[in-house]
Amino acid sequence: MPEPSELLSTVFGFSEFRPGQEEIVRAVAEGRDTLAIMPTGGGKSLCFQLPALMRDGVTVVISPLIALMRDQVRGLQAAGVAAGALTSGNTEAETEAVHAALRDGRLKILYMAPERLASGGTAAFLKRIGTNLIAVDEAHCVSQWGHDFRPDYLRIGDLRAALGVPVAAFTATADAETRAEIVTRLFAGRAPETFLRGFDRPNIHLAFATKNGPRQQILNFAAARKGQSGIVYCATRAKTETLAAALAREGHSACAYHGGMDPESRRAVEARFQTEDGLIVTATIAFGMGVDKPDIRWVAHADLPKSIEAYYQEIGRAGRDGTRAETLTLFGADDIRLRRAQIDEGLAPHERKAVDHGRLNALLGLAEALSCRRQTLLGYFGEAAGPCGHCDLCDSPPETWDGSVEVQKALSAILRTGESFGAGHLIDILTGTLTDKVRNRGHDALPTFGVGRDVDRKTWTAIFRQMMGHDLVRPDPERHGALRMTGRARPILRGEADITLRKDTLKAASRPAAKALVAEEDAPLLAALKAKRRALAEAARVPAYVVFPDRTLIEMAERRPATLDEMAQVSGVGAKKLDRYGATFLEVITGHAPEPVHPARQKLSGRAEGAVYDRLLEAQASLLRGETGTEKPMSCSAALIARVAALGQPDETALERILGERRAERFGPAFLDVLAAS
Ligand code: ADP
Ligand code: ZN
């Protein structure tokens, strides 16, 4: 079996495994049943693609989304891996190419849509082609209670039994019920080796802000990241349209995406987003499942998501390539009311609503957090962590104050008015504002009237929002907008517990400085590399990242490789891509075409043998006419030199076998010296 780390660098061009990958790769390659739970962007695909190359026979990958399969196949082919897909989206020629590769025994990875499993001959077909591993992507699709349930996934268990091969299942969904269901349905209840990779996505910067001119806040955020791909999630279809138009007016390329559009226009947006560099999509939550773009540089929420899970999933679409990515989530009291109302007005049974309120509470807790957001977020997923240093609260800790007295005053205003009013009227009472409504209801006679005069209206608004955020009060679904006290508020009302609140820093939204991906001096080169990538991607009709991901271009711009050897050291540049694109990108960096290199030498680029090869070549040059310089000229072919370099150790017999007697006589001792010295 080839070494996984060797394939990692030669085929995929990565210098090291991401956390957790190596163990999973080994388990899968050794044919053990495995279940791996990894966060989005953790690098799941590699965990079945690499073992597929290590094992004999064909690995069949069941994946729910045709668009994703096509992209993965294109990516693999670009890396020189024999992969294909059988889906309803195939052209006849594509299908024929897959069958031809199968007939020749060349194909290593076959992607298949789950629908195929429903047709009778599939198991026999997969047996015939030598399937020896089933990889199941998005394994949570087998869960009947999940949002992504795909009935055909239930057939995978039977397929496994019919073929008698191991199954490797992957998902980003961590909850215990889903995991148990996967074990029952895919593994017939026999527990697979399970890998649970942490949920942290350290390259994603987390930030929340209270709404204060929200459209301008989003425009500013986008302006600081001009030219970078991003998604803006909005709560309504109308807002996706108006925001897209506003972004376009500011010179971004932006388009809207929502469930009300016809399928064709939606697909067109997905395709544009996948291939175009720097497009912004303003979307309702309907966007994202079908996109597998690793270089999304930012995600903004123009409105608060519905739960902490939704939040995590949506920000998780950013930065899957591991390069820095940024997020901003806007929220305000109206968002909290909207999300509460959506839960209360839904058709779900009572217990379900309670769970949904809990998930919303967790998100609000994150929004109103007083210290490191990542710590709070990971804490929700049951992971302990220290302060991350990569979120808005770590960047600048919020000012806080003891709000216990003000909260007590607010709660008493709520109780004394029969829990029948919204924040606006309650603030009128607290600040002693004599409106008609206050006078008509006689609320100016309440003991709470005017007790909060010392605090301004804006601060009271922030206090009420935070009270909702801490779930001390909830809007009553029966009485439109009226706030009711919850059990959590009682200890504060009784003076048995304190509550710390944040001071909202409602700075006027200013234009932040542009956030560049590289230092100023490298920016022009990065732009040139991106332009070259775009041209190549368009010519080949593949997404830009299939040529090279952002992170590879960033590394090129920073390290400025001067030779193909140095180019091969850049993360993301495997042998095949070096071969195909290395010289082209090198030319962009150095300004001239690199010296032609013999293919046998190029194969060794970036490896230790490359340097050995060069020294062997030097040694040979000095002996071309023998030690005396008078003998008949003699030399070794590039292929021979490469084989000698591959020896690694000085080995006289092996050397003679490679070179033959005559050449060994002339070059042998010098070559052995070179090998011994390296
Ligand atoms: P997911 O777990 O969401 O399916 P992917 O398999 O799509 O994630 O991987 C996300 C990105 O990370 C891809 O662009 C992939 O090329 C990259 N990646 C995976 N493994 C590594 C690695 N060991 N080193 C660098 N990049 C990697
Ligand atoms: Zn932090």
Gist?
The protein is α/β, with parallel strands linked by helices and 678 residues long.
Present as ligands are: adenosine-5'-diphosphate, zinc ion
Helix content: 40-55%
Beta strand count: 18
Tell me the number of helical segments per DSSP (H or I, 4 or more residues long).
31
**Under CATH, the topology of the largest domain is which?**
Rossmann fold
Computed over alpha carbons, the radius of gyration is: 31 Å
What does this structure look like?
- The structure is a single chain.
- This protein is an alpha/beta fold and 678 residues long.
- It has five domains: 4-196, Rossmann fold, CATH 3.40.50.300; 204-331 and 369-394, P-loop containing nucleotide triphosphate hydrolases (Rossmann fold); 400-502, Arc Repressor Mutant, subunit A; 520-595, DNA polymerase, domain 1 (Orthogonal Bundle); 608-677.
- Strand 16 (473-475) and strand 17 (483-485) form a beta hairpin.
- Helix 13 packs antiparallel against helix 14.
- The protein starts with a helix and ends with a helix.
- Zinc ion (ZN) binds next to helix 15 and helix 16.
